[in-house]
Structure formats: C-alpha cells, structure tokens
Amino acid sequence: MSTKFPEVQGGGSLILAWQIRDKHVLVVGGGEVAAGRILNVLNADAKVTVVCPAAGLNEEVAYRVSQKQVIHVDRTFEPQDLEGVDMVLCAIDDPAASTRVWQLCKEKKIPANIADVPPECDFYFGSMYRDGPLQVMVSTNGNGPKLASIVRKKIAETLPDNMGTAIENTGKLRRKLRHVAPNIEEGPKRMKWMSGICESWSLEELVKMDEQDMDNVLTYYASGKVPTYAEVQVKRDVQS
Ligand SMILES: C[C@@]1(CC(=O)O)C2=NC(=C\c3[nH]c(c(CCC(=O)O)c3CC(=O)O)Cc3[nH]c(c(CC(=O)O)c3CCC(=O)O)/C=C3\N/C(=C\2)[C@@H](CCC(=O)O)[C@]3(C)CC(=O)O)/[C@H]1CCC(=O)O
Ligand SMILES: NC(=O)c1ccc[n+]([C@@H]2O[C@H](COP(=O)([O-])OP(=O)(O)OC[C@H]3O[C@@H](n4cnc5c(N)ncnc54)[C@H](O)[C@@H]3O)[C@@H](O)[C@H]2O)c1
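Structure for precorrin-2 dehydrogenase, as requested:
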C-alpha cells in the first residue's frame, strides 16, 4: 500500500557525524588497519591511546607515536586499558583476544569496532572522502567494502575541487550572521535568508567571497533581501 509518507527500508545503518573531540579512544593493535583507524579518529580531534607491543607497530603508527600524536602503551591489551575510555577500535591478528576485547567492552557499555568482525561491531567504518569541512561516507552495510571504496571514488569525481572552500566560507558567513542577528526569535528569518544565499549564489561566487563581501552581504539581512553576488560587488567598488 502506498502512502504519502516515506517507506521504511529496514536493514540499514544509522549514519551520523559522531562528535569525539577530546574523547578517549583506545586503539588495540598497531598494524595497517590500526593506522587507518588512528587517522580517522585523530581527524575528529579525539585523544588516542594505542596499546600494542613496540615490535608490532607499523611505520605510520610508529611515526604518530614519535610525533606524540598518540599515547603508546608498549604491551598487549589488558582489561585495565578500558578505564576511562569512550570508544574502542580493535585491529589485531588474534581472533580470541579480539573477542575478549569485545566482551569486556559490552560489559562496560563502551562502543566498539572489532575490524573485520561484523557481529562484534557497534558501528562499521565506511569509505571516506574529505575536503576541509566536507566529509562523505559510503557504506555498503557489510556487503562489499571494496565496492564502498569504488563508489566513494565515483562520488568524489563528480565534486568540484573547491567544494570545501565554498563550505568553509559559508560557515564563516553563518557565524557572522549569528553575531548580526543573535536572537532566538530571528531563527526563521535567519534560516530563510541563509538558505536563499546558498541557493542563489554559484559555487564559484561562494569560493570568491572574502571578509569584505561577507560584511557587505550582511548589510542586506535586516531587510530580508537576498542580494546577488554582483550587487555585493557594487558596494565593494564604492568602498575602494
Ligand atoms: C570501507 C572500509 C573502511 C575502513 O575499514 O576504513 C571497510 N573495509 C575496507 C576495506 C576492505 N575490507 C576488506 C577488504 C578485502 C576485500 C573484501 O573482502 O571485500 C577490503 C578492501 C581493501 O582492503 O581495499 C575485508 C573485510 N572487511 C570486513 C570483513 C568481514 C566480513 O565481511 O565478514 C572482511 C573480510 C572478508 C573475508 O575474510 O573474506 C568488514 C568490514 N569492513 C568495513 C569497512 C565494514 C563494512 C563497510 C561496508 O560494507 O561498506 C566492516 C563490516 C566492519 C569494519 O571493519 O568496520 C575499507 C575501505 C576503505 C577505502 O579504501 O576507502
Ligand atoms: N576492516 C578492514 O578494512 C580490514 C582490512 C584488512 C584486514 N582487517 C583485519 O584487521 C585485523 C588487523 O589487520 P592488520 O593488517 O592491521 O594486521 P597486522 O598483522 O598488520 O597488525 C596486527 C597488530 O596487532 C598487534 N597485536 C596482536 N595481538 C595484540 C594484543 N593482544 N594486544 C595488542 N596488540 C596486539 C600486533 O602486534 C600487530 O601490531 C586483522 O584481523 C584483519 O583480518 C580488516
């Protein structure tokens, strides 16, 4: 039966942008897969501890340890390592030990990912594209990780190189707008005006927008008018 509401399509994942800034992430293992996990969580500003015998560290993980980007515990995993930890990422070549890590995490209610063991994952990793503030993640929900990487590359090919800069500038403009119109009651007007700018300005215009343009475009906000890029440039000519 078709209704006016979206059909529920069970069997998917809840894809979120998890905020782990300054949270404690424990990475168990220091091989190639661990290196990828470490980069992912460092990119999200987490505080990272790696537990792994020094002899097992690969070149990239050893580099992160030497740069003090992560704390290194030079031995195999022990249950006390879970003390004060907010998330666990396990990537070791010892299935029995990794199942033990998983069980302990469940006892302590710590979200965990045991690489390559879907039944022992609270969340899966996905294939990631990053351009400044823009992140695109592709998941095949366990069906084909290699295909996730192929789809991610196809999506990335369709995105302009400067998409990240356009988004960064939009973020700056939105923050400035909140200074100009800080009141909660202004929410609907603020959102309508901001959406208007995003819809009517081209990507190139958003990329070119500098501080002076931002201050000029914000002078239109009070009236609710969404100016064109050209109108904002006219103000600039008068100012110089
Ligand atoms: C996306 C990516 C992210 C990342 O890990 O960062 C990722 N795997 C990647 C690569 C990859 N992994 C494997 C191959 C070999 C080819 C192949 O098997 O297809 C390749 C290809 C390669 O290495 O190029 C082996 C593999 N992977 C899993 C199993 C167990 C199983 O399926 O039961 C087996 C062993 C199967 C066996 O023994 O035969 C399971 C998982 N791998 C996931 C994520 C989660 C589901 C994501 C999704 O479905 O979208 C999930 C469920 C859990 C998790 O680990 O989080 C990353 C690509 C990053 C990139 O390049 O952009
Ligand atoms: N999801 C994925 O994308 C993916 C892809 C390839 C492999 N894997 C799986 O991830 C796991 C790790 O792969 P890898 O290529 O990084 O392996 P690796 O052999 O390069 O690294 C394993 C690391 O675990 C360490 N280790 C072993 N037992 C430990 C313990 N008890 N405590 C702490 N450290 C311990 C070793 O010293 C080594 O550093 C394997 O199980 C592999 O099947 C996952």
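The mean pLDDT is 96.
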